[in-house]
Request: fold
Amino acid sequence: MVGDISRYPESENLAAATGSEPVTDYRLMQLSHADPDVLVGVIDGSEMRHRILPGGAITVRLEQSRPGTGWLQRGRYGMSVLAQGALPQGVVTIGGMLSSPADTMINGHFCPPGSLQVYAERCELHYRAAPDTTWFAYCIEREALQHAALQLLGRPLPLPTAGAVNLRLAPVLCRRIACAVEAVFAAARSPDAAEVTRADRNPLHFDLAAALMAGSSGGVSTRDRLHVAQRCQLIRRAEEYLSEHLRESFDLAALSDAVGLSHRMLEYHFRRTYGVSPLAWHRSMRLDAVRQDLRRARRRGESVTLVAMRWGFHHFGRFAAEYRRLYGERPIDTLRGG
Reply:
C-alpha cells in the first residue's frame, strides 16, 4: 500500500519527538542532532543511506501527509548531507527543491531552484544537498497519477518508465507547486484533516500534472552525460581507495596516483560531487566508520578512546570536537545510545 506509515522508521515516535499528538495522516519529526540511521526511510518505502557532511547546523525537520491517493514528504536539512539509495517500489516519485542553494546535485547533475525531477519506480538516487535545503517528494502509483491527469488535463503525462527526467519550470509553476505543498500540510494539521485531504480536494494533483506537461527538458547533452559518467567512475575509484586505507592518514599523492588524476583535478571533482575537498571527505568517512563502530562497541564493552584509535584518531580533543560538530552529539553519547 502506498504510504504505509508503519514502514517509516520510528513512526510511532514521531509525535513524541515534537511533544504533540499526531493528526490523522500527518507525521512530524524534528531533530536537534541528526542520526543518519533515522533518515534511512526519509521518503516512505525508500532505502536511503545518509552521510552527514561538514557545513551547516545539525537540524532536521521532516513532515509526511497523505493527500488523497498519494503520499507527500517535505524535509529541511540544516546541514550538508549525502543520500544514496533506491526510491520506493511501485510508485512514481516527483520531487523538487522548495528552497535550495545553487549547488544541490542529483545523480551527478546540478539541480537549481525551478527544476522538477520525476523518478520511475525503484530509481536509484544519489543526492547531495547543501545546507539549508528544503525539498519535497510526492509518491503516487503510476495508474492513479495518469487517471488524475486524464480527468484534469484530458491526456496522460509523459512519465519515465526507467531512470529519471529533470524538468525546468517557469517561476509561476514553481510558486504554485510550493503553495500547493504548503496547502496540503496546512490542511493535514487542521482539526478537519480527514475531510480536507480527500482526493477531490487535493490541490497538488493539478499543479504537478500541469508542471509535468508544461516543463521543458533539462537539455542534458550526450557529452554532458558522458562527463557525468566519467566523473562518477573516477569518484567511485577514489572512494574505493579511501575505504581500503581508511585507518591510515590521508595521502593526497597516493590517492592521485591510484585514481590517475592530478591533485588539482581530484580536488575539482570532489568539490563538484560532494562540495568538500578529498581531505574533508576522507575525515567524514572515518568519522562515519567511528560512529558505526561505537554502536557495536556498546555490546563489546569498548571505550571511545579504543574505537577512536582503531580508526587512526590519536588527538582525542580534536577528534571529539570534530565528531560533535558533525553529528551534534559527543562520542560518549553515541556509545551509550543517548
Notes: The longest strand covers residues 47-65. The chain has a mean pLDDT of 83. The chain has twelve helices and eleven strands. Residues 6 and 12 are 8 Å apart (CA to CA).
